[in-house]
Amino acid sequence: MMRTLDILSIVALISAASWTFHVKHDADLVETEIRKMERKIAAEKETIAILSADWTLLNQPGRLQSLSETYADELKLVTVRPDQIVAEHQLPAPPEPKAPDTDEIGAELVASNDVVGR
User: Fold this and answer.
1) pLDDT at 97
2) Cα–Cα distance between 45 and 51 in angstroms, integer?
3) C-alpha count within 13 angstroms, C-beta hemisphere, residue 7
4) 3-state DSSP assignment of residue 91
5) How would residue 18 be classed by pLDDT, with cut points 50, 70 and 90?
6) CA atoms of 113 and 115, how far apart (whole Å)
7) Do residues 107 and 100 touch, judged by C-beta distance below 8 A?
8) 3 state SS of 85
9) Are 3 and 11 within 8 A, CB to CB?
10) Which of 28, 40, 71, 101 gives a 20 to 30 Å CA spacing to 116?
11) In Å, how far from its chain's centre is CA 47?
């Protein structure tokens, strides 16, 4: 009887140890993935900060003014007048889509039948 209890205890101990090792291993894998994602997030935040600084530098009014003066002949830019700015409801309506003619539909059907080989 004592041997059976000892064997069951040893099996239970080995099972608990292997389960604990498996859980610890899974936790280590998850922690590694979290660290990788944190590094990626930090790199993306740094990239965003660099791009934001670059955008701020490129959009400085003085720089844009000097560029527009330098390339005035090629760009042919003109000053915007206040009467050119309108609200959405003042814009003209987009053109209505043109319905295809029935002859065009028939020609398409004939062309598609020729391709299929009917």
Assistant:
1) 84
2) 10
3) 4
4) coil
5) very high
6) 5
7) no
8) coil
9) no
10) 101
11) 15
Q: What residue ranges do the domains of the chain occupy?
A: 38-80
Summarised one tens digit per residue, pLDDT across range 23-71 is 999 999 999 999 999 999 999 999 999 999 999 999 999 999 999 889 9
Q: What is the pTM of this model?
A: 0.51
Q: How large is the C-alpha radius of gyration of the chain?
A: 36
CA-angle at 60, arms to 58 and 62, nearest 5°: 120
User: Given the structure tokens 């814009």, which residue do they identify?
Assistant: 91
- CA gap 65, 20 in Å, rounded: 68
pLDDT digits (tens, 9 = 90+) for 96-110: 887 766 565 566 655
CA 43 to CA 51: how far, in whole Å? 12
The C-alpha atoms of residue 26 and residue 38 are separated, in whole angstroms, by: 18
